[in-house]
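dude i think i finally got it to work??
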Amino acid sequence: MSSESGPRKRTPLFKREERHEFRYQLSVFLAELFSWIFWLIPKPIRYLLADRAGDIFRRATNTYRDNVEANVAQVLGLTTESAEVRAAVKSIFHTSSRNFTDLITTPRQSSNSLVESLKVRHGHWVIVDDALAQGKGVILVSGHLGSFDQVGQVFWARGYKLTIVTGRTTSRFIFDGVTHLRGSRGAKLVEPTPSGIRQVIRALRQGEVAVIVGDRDHFQNGRAVELFGRTTTLPPGAIRIARDTGATIVPIAQRRTGRTHELDILEPFTVPRTADLEADMAAGFANLLPRLEHAIRESINQWVMFQRVWPETPAPALRVFPVGSPLESELLEKVAQALPERSPNGRKSLVSRRKTDSEEGTDDDAHVP
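look at this
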């Protein structure tokens, strides 16, 4: 499934009533303005300036620098003062700054240039195509590695219809501008709200692709796992949605290579759906975690994770809607009840299948995310 020109552009599906209209329009205007300014600067100079900006940011922000150092030290099994950790941290700040220059110039890039900017190092596009041929959709699970935004743009340029789940970690003003840039070429972006999860499920039912990052529990109510030898929590969304929809999970790992990018399309897997929800979730994570650890370890100097993956003091779980995780059972039940009984291609909906499962004595608490 590939083409030289992507499908028609769409507007990100966020609730406009949550924004002040003037601030929203100003955010979009500034994003477009800076996109043109950055585009007029030759790429080598853009990256040179980005590296210098990364150095300034690293020295000026103690909190983010300390967080990155702690994450890298845990992965490498070294102290935060070691030279290897310090070198990786410097590279991570450079990578983040270069990622920003790529994102801000996204509207100016052609589909051909996007496709040519990415080389598949391991795996092949046929892995994604074969998974889509199953008719239940594909969930791409990635970490914050390399230029993950750029790789998403390449998928869209190759003709894959994407629904990207993205959470807000900055002010609404900045988030609106960033979201505009991410969706400028047509990918559908949704927030982890009830309506957003409905969009993800609908896309999977239509045989499309959803994108979820899986290396940070932003809502502090994820699943406890062992990651790089230490307990933390990770978001269960991708695993739970795959279990309840039958979608195939395709882990991917990306990295920058100078001015271009590489992609690994890793071995896909499905999550079993039995009467034992806990066992199904454990099986899904047993498949995902080794791939996630391998990808992070191999590209640790490009793991642009600025929050602590292993907090020193665990934060209390956030369970207030719509800010909280879409994996809360009450929300899942509401989403399930709001979905139509049959999918567009005539197959039974998840709600219908859930009723059938209940009648057959299967998992009665397996709500649809």
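The longest strand covers residues 248-257.
im so relieved honestly
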